[in-house]
Amino acid sequence: MEVQLFIDWLTAYGEGRLLVPNLMVLTSALIHFGAKNENLNGVVIPSLRKYSNAGRAPAMRTIWGHRFDMYKADVNDWLEKYEIDTGKPLPTLKKSGNKTSGMIQIFGEITALAYGALSWYELAPFLNARRENGILWQEDKKEERIKLVTPNAPNEDPILVSSIPPGFEMFLISEFSGWTVMPWVDSDTPEG
Description:
Elements: H1 2-14, H2 23-32, H3 44-48, H4 53-64, H5 66-86, H6 101-114, H7 120-138, E1 147-148, E2 159-160, H8 168-177
Antiparallel strand pairs: 1-2
C-alpha cells in the first residue's frame, strides 16, 4: 500500500501536482526500497539538511548503502539516453560541469523529508523549482528559470535551482521499483 501511494505521489509530481505526502507512508516506502531506519549515527540528520549533493553524501551512503552510488550511475546512463532521444543537451553547472545535480538532489531531498531533516515547507519550493526549471529549459526559456535562497545560506543571493528533466519521475519510479528488498536479504549487499 505504501509503495503504491509513493508511486502515485511521484506520478502526481511529474504531472505538476505537488501534493503534501504522508510522511509515515513516505518513510515506509523508502524502507521497503532498502533505506536503513536503525542504528543511524549522529551525522545523518545534519548531513541530510545540507543543500549540496556533497554535503548530503555521507547521510545518503549511511541510509542507502551501495544503492546511492548505483543510483548516481543509473542517472548518468539515463541522462545519456535522454539527451540522445530528445536531441537536447541538459544544462550544466557552471563550476563543475555536472548535468545530474538536480536529479541527485531530488533523491536526497525525498530522503531528507522522510527522515525529518527537511520539512515540507522547506522542501516544496525546491521540488517545484526543479520540475519547472526542467520544463523551462526544454522550452528554451532558460532565462525564466527559478532562483531560490538555499536553506543553508539564508542571507546569500538566490541561486538557480538545478533542474530535473520532464519525465524524470518515471525514471525515479522505475529505479525505486527495482530496489524492492525482501526481509531476508541484507539491504546493503549488491545482491539485495
